[in-house]
From TrEMBL:
Residues 330-350 are annotated as: Disordered. InterPro entries: Band_7, Band_7/SPFH_dom_sf. Transmembrane segments: none annotated. Residues 26-196 form the Band domain. This is SPFH domain-containing protein. It comes from Myceligenerans crystallogenes. Residues 333-342 have a biased composition (Low complexity).
Length: 350
């Protein structure tokens, strides 16, 4: 923004790089341009400051379509002052002398002019469209219609150039917009429900597949367990058969060993019996050859072994006499006979 310094009789103006200043002295242009600095007389000078930069003007207005539906158009118009001197003459951009506080400035006037012209063009164009077309292609068609805004005589006569127009939205009323959104919302909801059902169906299918896999696994495990039980039974039978065969072999070996032992014992018994029989036979032969007295003595000796112990023995003369007589008679007979008495004598010695 420009700066004006006060001095007793003069004023000093120092402009900025974004404002175009026009200095009129007695109705004639004395200074103009951007970034000017000059002295001027306050009593005979008028200063106007026109923006030298591009200006953005947002506009928002309502229009009625061909089928009597209200729509809202939101747009932005970009413009600049192509002829600042002409604009300063047609619009109030004066900064000196100061204007009243309630007076409209040139920026406000330009905004009003551009906004009204843009609204007029857009309303005329929207009136030729129905609601469906306006909502479907209204942004492009309204922008194309507003492109002719730069040819308006009112703007060219004021030195304003239109640089571009952007249409942001063409929207219906809230109730109409809600009604229009309902089918789309319902369709989207139906798609969402269908996706949900498909996801649930897929989940059920996957669960069924998992259940079938688990059942197949259980069947496979049961089959393998059956094989295991059969194998274990076969192993147990084989172990029992092997144990029975081993027991049979052991029993046979024990029987054979007992038979061998029995045979050996029988043979030993027969040998012993034969030896005993031979001994008895020999003894009987000896007994047959021995005399009566010897047999009596042997019988007494064998019987004495079985008698209880005798504490006192009384020997009478008659007994001694009879025994001595028998012994003497037996000895004489033996001496007269010769050989046979000798073994008996030895046996008696024993």
């Amino acid at each position: 923004m420009a700066t004006i310094k006060r001095y007793p009789a003069l004023r000093r103006f120092l402009g900025s790089a974004s404002e175009y200043v026009v200095h009129l002295h007695k109705g004639a242009v004395r200074h103009q341009g951007v970034g000017q600095a000059f002295w001027f007389l306050p009593d005979t000078s008028v200063l106007s400051e026109v923006p030298a930069t591009d200006q953005e003007l947002p506009v928002l207005f309502h229009a009625v379509t061909r089928d009597q539906q209200d729509v809202t158009v939101q747009a932005t118009v970009t413009y600049r002052f192509g002829d600042p001197v002409l604009a300063s003459r047609r619009l109030d951009f004066g900064i000196f002398p100061p204007r009243p506080g309630d007076a409209a400035s040139g920026r406000q006037q330009v905004g009003s002019i551009v906004g009204q012209l843009a609204q007029s063009v857009a309303v005329d164009h929207v009136a030729t469209l129905d609601l469906a077309t306006a909502l479907a292609s209204g942004v492009g068609s309204v922008r194309a219609a507003l492109a002719s805004l730069g040819e308006e005589p009112r703007l060219t006569a004021t030195g304003i150039e239109i640089l571009g127009v952007r249409v942001l939205a063409v929207s219906p009323e809230a109730a109409v917009e809600k009604a229009l959104r309902t089918p789309v919302r319902e369709r989207l909801q139906a798609e969402a429900d269908r996706a949900t059902y498909e996801r649930r169906a897929l989940a059920v299918e996957r669960e069924r597949t998992i259940s079938e896999n688990e059942l197949a696994s259980q069947i496979e495990l049961a089959a393998r367990r059956e094989q295991l039980v059969a194998q274990e039974g076969a192993n147990m039978r084989r172990e029992a058969e092997e144990a029975a065969a081993a027991a049979l072999v052991k029993a046979r070996s024990d029987a054979e060993r007992r038979e061998i032992d029995s045979t050996a014992r029988d043979a030993e018994t027969r040998r012993i019996d034969a030896a005993y029989a031979a001994r008895e036979a020999a003894l009987m032969q000896v007994y047959a050859q021995a005399g009566k007295d010897v047999l009596t003595a042997l019988a007494l000796r064998d019987g004495a072994r079985k008698l209880p112990s005798i504490g006192n023995l009384t020997v009478t003369p008659d007994l001694v006499t009879g025994l001595l007589g028998n012994l003497a008679g037996g000895a004489g007979a033996a001496a007269s006979d010769g050989g046979p008495a000798r073994p008996d004598a030895r046996r008696g010695e024993r």
